[in-house]
User: Which sequence fits this backbone?
C-alpha cells in the first residue's frame, strides 16, 4: 500500500506493538525528551514523528494499553502529539495502517479497547485470511521473498 501511494518516496515505519513492554511503547511511538524518565539522557524521535509525511504500520494494535490508545487517538484526530516529557506540540502528517489478530469488537465490550480509536482506524478494513486458507498464495510469496532477498543482499 505504501509503495503504490503518493507517499512512497517518504518514510515507511513499522512497529510491532506486541513485541515490547507497555512502559516502553509510549517512548517508542512518541519519542521522549531528556530526563523524561530514568535513563532518558537525550532526545529520541518516536516512530510516529519519524513516519510523518509517510506511513506508519502498527502491527498487533490490540496489544496497545488504554493510556497509549488515548494518545494515539489524539494523533489521528488532531494530527499532533508531544514527546514523552515534552512540552512542545509537534504537528504531523502521517498515514497509519494497523493490524491485529484480536477481535477488537470483543475487546471494546470488555473495556480493553477504545471504541473511538477503533472507528478512527477502521476506515478501510481489510480481512486477510490465514495463509493456510489460501495455499495458492504460497508460491507468489516465495517468489516475492526471493526477489526481495536478492535486492537487499
Assistant:
Amino acid at each position: 500500500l505504501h509503495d503504490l501511494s503518493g507517499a512512497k518516496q517518504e518514510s515507511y515505519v513499522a512497529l510491532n506493538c506486541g513485541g515490547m513492554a507497555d512502559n516502553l511503547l509510549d517512548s517508542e511511538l512518541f519519542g521522549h525528551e531528556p530526563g523524561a524518565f530514568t535513563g532518558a539522557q537525550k532526545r529520541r524521535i518516536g516512530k510516529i514523528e519519524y513516519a510523518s509525511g509517510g506511513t506508519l504500520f502498527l502491527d498487533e494494535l490490540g496489544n496497545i494499553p488504554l493510556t497509549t490508545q488515548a494518545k494515539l487517538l489524539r494523533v489521528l484526530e488532531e494530527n499532533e502529539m508531544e514527546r514523552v516529557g515534552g512540552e512542545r506540540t509537534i504537528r504531523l502528517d502521517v498515514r497509519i495502517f494497523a493490524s491485529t489478530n484480536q477481535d477488537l469488537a470483543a475487546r471494546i465490550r470488555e473495556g480493553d479497547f477504545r471504541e473511538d480509536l477503533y472507528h478512527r482506524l477502521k476506515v478501510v478494513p481489510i480481512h486477510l485470511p490465514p495463509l493456510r486458507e489460501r495455499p495458492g498464495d504460497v508460491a507468489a510469496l516465495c517468489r516475492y521473498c526471493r526477489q526481495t532477498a536478492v535486492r537487499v543482499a
In short: DSSP finds six helices and seven strands in the chain.
